[in-house]
Amino acid sequence: MKRTFTPQVLLLPAILILLLGMGYPLVWQVVTSLQKFGIQQQFGKPASFVGVDNYVTLFADAELWGVVARSLLFCVVTATVTLVIGMLLALLMTVVTKTARLILQVALLLAWAMPVVAAMTVWIWLFDRRRGVVNYLLDLVPGVDMNRFNWLETPTTFFIVAGIIVLWMSVPFVAFSAYAGLTQVSDEVLEAAQIDGATPWQRLREIILPMIRPVIMIVFLLQLIWDLRVFTQITMLQDAGSKSGAFDLLGTYIYKLGTRAQDFGMASAVSILVLAITIALSWFYVRSLLREEEA
Amino acid sequence: MRRSTVVRTLWSALAVVIALGWVFPVYWMVNSSLLPTSRLESFIPTFIPFGGSLDNFTAALADGDFYSALGMSVAITLITVFFCLVFAFFAAVAISRFRFRGRKSFIVAVLLVQMLPAEGLFIAQYKMMSSVGLLNSVGGVSIIYIAAVVPFTIWMLRGFVTGIPVDLEEAAMVDGLSRTQAFLRITFPLLAPGLIASGVYAFLQAWNEFTVALVLLPAEASQTLPLWLRGFVQASATRATDWGQVMAASTLVAVPVIIFFLIVQGRLTSGLVSGAVKG
Prior knowledge:
Chain B: It holds the Pfam family BPD_transp_1. Chain B: Residues 70-264 form the ABC transmembrane type-1 domain. The structure holds two protein chains of two kinds. By secondary structure, chain A is mainly α. Chain A has a single domain, classed as MetI-like (MetI-like fold), CATH 1.10.3720. In chain A, 78% of the residues lie in helices and 1% in strands. In chain A, helix 4 packs parallel to helix 8 and helix 10 (200-228) packs antiparallel against helix 13. The mean pLDDT of chain A is 87. Chain B has a domain at 64-241: MetI-like (MetI-like fold). Chain B has 13 helices and no strands. Chain B has helices at 2-33, 37-40, 55-61, 65-97, 103-113, 118-131, 138-163, 166-174, 179-190, 192-208, 211-216, 225-238, 243-277. In chain B, helix 12 (225-238) runs antiparallel to helix 13. Chains A and B meet through helix 1, helix 4, helix 5, helix 6 and helix 8 of A and helix 1, helix 4, helix 5, helix 6 and helix 7 of B.
C-alpha cells in the first residue's frame, strides 16, 4: 500500500517550489496582463480588469514590433552562427593532435566559465572607443581608421558587438556538446565508408551529421531560447552606451516597462508574449524528447 | 602517410591560433588588472604587464560593499545548491524508479518550466516578493533560484539514476534488504558524480545570476557579487573609467569561478550530456 504513493511524496518538494517560484508568478503575470495600470495604481488603487486591451494596444504598437523583430533577428542570427562555429570547432577537434585539442578545449572552457557580468566588463573595455584594443588593432590595418570609433553609438554596431560577445560565450557549449556527439560516431563505420571511396564531405553529410543530429537539434533550440532572452549583455552594453529604445531587446524592454513606467499590465502582456514564443520554440524540443522516451 | 601528417599539423596550428584568440579577453582582463591606469590610458596598449602591481586589487577590495556582496552571494548560493540537490534528488528518484500516474505530465512540466525565461517572469516575482516583504532578502532570491534551477538538476540527476541498473538494487533486495535500504546502500553511493555535477551546475547558476538579483535586490546593501561588479563599473564610469580597477574587480569575480569550473568541468559536461541523452 505504502509503495503506491511514495513517488508522489518524493515529487512534492520540487512541485511546491516550482509552484511558488514559477507557477504563481506565471498566473499573476497572466492575470495582470489583463489589467490596467496607471498613475492611480501607483498610489495604491487596485487595478481594474480591461480584458485584452493591453494586448490590443501592444499589437498596434510599432515600437513593440520593432523590439520583437529585432529580438527574433538577433536570436536567430546569433544562434545560427553559434551553431555553425561550434560545429566547425568540434570537427576541428577531431582532426588535430592531442596537444592542440587540449589547448583549444582549455581556451573554450575559460570563455565558458567566465561569469557573464565579468565577461561583459572585459568586452566593453576591449571595445572602448579610445583605449580599446579592438580599435587599436583594427587601426593597424592599412587604410582602416577606427580610432575613436564608437561601437555602441548606432544600433547596428551595438548589436554586432552584443552578438560577438554572446557568440564568444556560447560557442564553447555547442563545441563541447557536438564534440561529445562526434566521439560517439564509430570509427569502423567511417573507415568502411572511406574504403568504399566516400569523400570526406560525403562522410560528413551522409554519416556524421545524421548521427549527431539529435545533439545538434537540442543545442540549437537551447541557443535560440537563450539568445531570445539576453538581458544581462544588453543591459550592460546600454550602461556603457545608449539606453534609448532603439537599443532594446525583449528583456530590457519589459524591464523598462515594469520598473520605470510601473506599467505592470503592459509589461506582463509583453512577458506573456515572450513566454509564448519560448514555449512555441521549446515545444518541438519537448516533443522530440518525449518521442525518444516512448521508443 | 606523410601528407596526412602535414595536414594534421596545419589543422593543429589553426586550432592553437583560434584558442589564443578565444582566450584573449580573459588574458586581457588579467593583464589590464595588473597595470596602473596611467599605462592603460596610453594609446598604445601594453600587451604584457611588466612592472605590474596588485594595487588595483587593493583598491577594488577597499570598496566597502565587496564583502557584503560576497556574503550575500555565498549565502544565496549555498541555500540554492542545498535545496536544489535535495529536491531534485527526490524527484529524479521518483521519475526514474517508479511508474505512476502523472509521471509523464511531471516530466513535460519540468521540461517546459526550464524553458521559462527569467525575463518573462521578473515583474511578477518582484510584486510577489515585495508583497510578502522578501525584497532585498536572501530568502526571496533563493526561492526563485531554487525554482529556476531545480528543473534542470532533476533532468540531469534523472540521467544518472537511470544509468544505474535497477538489477543492482533488486539483487540486494533478494539478499534481504528493503527497497529503501537497497537504494541507499547500493545506488546512492554510485550517484555521487551525478550529485556533484548537478550541485556544480546549481552553484554556477546561482553565483553568476544577474537578472533576478537585479530585480529582487534593489538595495545597495543587499547586492550579490554580479550586482556589485556592475555597480563598481558604473561608479567608476562617473569619473573617467578607471579600467585598471574595473578589470581587477572583474578578475576578483571571475577567477574563483573559472578555477572551480576547470576542476569540475569533466563531470559537469558528462552530466549535461548524460541528462540529455539517457532515456
